[in-house]
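Recall that a protein's primary structure is simply its ordered list of amino acids. Everything else, from secondary elements to tertiary packing, is in principle encoded there. The following example makes that idea concrete.
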Amino acid sequence: MKFRSLLAATILCAFPFSSAIASEGLNSGDTAWIIVSTALVMMMTPAGLALFYGGMSRYKNLLNTFAMTFVAYCLTSVIWMIWGYSIAFGPDQAGITGSLANLFMAGIGVDSLSGSIPTYVFALFQMTFACITVALVLGSIVDRMKFSSWIVFTALWVTFIYCPVAHWVWGGGWMGTMGALDFAGGTVVHINAGVAGLVLSLVLGKRIGYGKEAMFPSSIALTALGAALLWFGWFGFNAGSQLAADGLAGSAFMVTNTSAAMGALAWMSAEWLVDKKPTVLGLASGVVAGLVAITPAAGFVNMPASLLIGLGAGLLGFYSVAKLKQKLGYDDSLDAFGVHGMCGVWGALATGLFANPAINEAGRGLFYGNPKQLWIQIVSILATAIFTAIGTLIVVYVTKFLTGGLRVDAENEVVGLDNTLHGERAFEIQLS
């Protein structure tokens, strides 16, 4: 007994923070994990998404795609810290938006906590979600939107579309109060971005030569690398959304990887069967489709459900990109709507089907005796899609008014935006 008492005293002396943390509410393990998760999600935008989208864009617009991704991250980072966080997570105003009580992060200090982590860490983590959401919209309009218009659009859209939707679901708004389940952003991020991208692409119109000439990606190798970085960062995206280093975070990590892998296999198989060639682009796209679909469900479903979610995402993503887009005739350049919008809808619905109380007692889906949850998910999908479509349309026309038009000149579009806008080229190739 003396030995045990001595050992316990030694441990407490060696780690005096343990009791302090417990009493004060701060958990150093949770904090460390969310800091790492924040870094992982940060990497997803200027590295993962830039490479993923850049490789799929045409060679003459590769740097422009990088530039638009980078500026979206930089601008959103500033907006979030000045007023975005307050709108999304400030004191609730009738379930619709947060107040401006935290403007310029007012009222938040180094000792402020959100659960078991510092509020600054929570705010930064959520900032990375806002950054990647607006950057995802870019996939619908590469090759043809003015850089200045993209900057204005980003500022307006983050403020008036993303922040309110984030508040609805995660900030104490009406959707979360209703019981909608969105663990890491199926509604807030993917449906939101996918619908916005579709609206923006329809207003901008098709690229010159679309449907009449081949538009080859600049580098499938870059896209594959970008998909790998997105996959890596997504562990912070989903597992980090638990906001704690615990078993549920581990479960979210596991189902995220499983769904991504299954999505890749499903897309590859469908493409191989239909088009007779299993492409690297298809594999990379399938990975992202599986990641998108598991995002709202990551903290609510078990591993078998993640297999079904990934399978559905891969097949739906392939159909949306390879068939639906051609049938409807819209020019979603890099398939932001086909992958993020459509697979985001599937993921939100799947959460209403497969949410398992044995994984997370906060969620119980149709297959576990709660059909109401599926209806709640449908309402959340429709409300987000309608609000985002109408709101984005307004933002688009305000942007058009402020910048004198959304689209680059036809000559610049044909020559390429890397040269005409940025005065740079992605590669210097000497031909002998």
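The longest helix spans residues 371-403. The CA atoms of residues 207 and 303 lie 41 Å apart.
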